[in-house]
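G., the chain you wanted modeled:
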Amino acid sequence: MSKLSPDGVEKLKNNLKEKGYKLTPQRRAIVDIIIKNEGSHLTTEELYNLVKKECPEIGLATVYRTVQLLEELGIISKLDLNDGCYRYELIHESENHQHHHLICSNCGKVIEVEGDLLEGLEHEIEIKYDFKIKNHSVKFYGLCKECNKE
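Predicted structure as tokens:
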């Protein structure tokens, strides 16, 4: 998926409008870059460098503000890989929770784990502790297939 679908653009426009914002060309360019690089877990600086190629006039502060806004609107989520910088990824409506990540301690590669593997455990915790879980985030650290061969 390299561009927002017409429905996605309308939904994004409405979401921004409800909060008093417009989908400016700069914001649209940032969202398009996030979509084009889905699965890359970009930092704000990496996102800025990619957007700057298409919008040379854009400033780093605009990218930071837009990333913060998109996170507040639930369009992207912040991922902390404990490496000193936050990375961002799209939130899919079909996901009830954030998906899990495998992080290579050697090369830094991030692999997304498909599916929610913790539904059973989550249900047990909710019952045992009378606690309604809204979301969870799981990160596994180790060696990817390539680094494990070395």
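The chain has six helices and six strands.

Shout if anything looks off.
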